[in-house]
Design a protein that fits this description.
- Helix 7 crosses helix 10.
- The protein is of the alpha/beta class.
- The strands form two sheets. A six-stranded parallel β-sheet has the order 3-2-1-4-5-6, with helices on both faces.
- It is 47% helix and 14% strand.
- It is globular.
Amino acid sequence: MTDKLTVSVLGTGIMGAAMARNLARAGHTVRVWNRTRAKAEPLAAEGAHLAESPEQAVRDADVVLTMLYDGPAALDTMREAAPALRPGTAWVQSTTAGIESLGTLAAFAREHGLAFYDAPVLGTRQPAEAGQLTVLAAGPAEGRDRVTPVFDAVGARTVWAGEDGAAGAATRLKLVANSWVLAATAAAGEALALAKALDVDPHGFFDLIAGGPLDMGYLRAKSDLVLDGRLTPPQFAVSTAAKDARLIVRAGADHGVRLDVAEAAAARLERAAAQGHADEDMAAAYFASFDDTPSA
């Protein structure tokens, strides 16, 4: 099989657009669709073909890649695409959909004879644009030669978590990883907020922990976004992070685990969104520590 494929990318937000761009740069034929067409239009200049509908986008595709807001959005879009889906097409489902949606998505794949790959990614805007994501994948070993060129184009590393996409091994691993990301983001924001309240120079705090076990590149990166006022364009938006936090809380509850930090992170993100920060980087959860929006 040639490693040059026809790939349909459904959903061209922060992550989907970057993935489509890197697929085109790798020499694949890329068709893109987004419900808000304006988000897909810039990709035409990068060699992607704009489709008017999901059905048009997936016609004769080797691989369909979904990178949408959540599981219901992915399912609704694939239902729109259904008349043009060919049995045997590989479906790379990269939306962070949550465990509860996987059964429905996998059932749709079985109904239409699709090879289903549960394949969320780790990374934000910058690594996505650089093709340096980590792909967490689960799906049948037979047929991986078809999706591997896609993963290689969008990521620096692929971690195979299992051979049954419907079992959700990749999604479960993604939720664990995201629980840590959200906890670290919330902690960074609260440390900055407390420093402001106590009139402590945050750089004094960074100097205090520099080079020790408490130091963390992620802390500094997210803090810099707040302190330098660089919250747009977002690496990962507040609204999407809040959605993921709720998926994590639900996954824990469904499996008998209480996740207090994830619950608090979700509440902080939702509060920040209500304050007007929904489309900013998730570091903007910092502002949820205040009743009135302060300067950083």
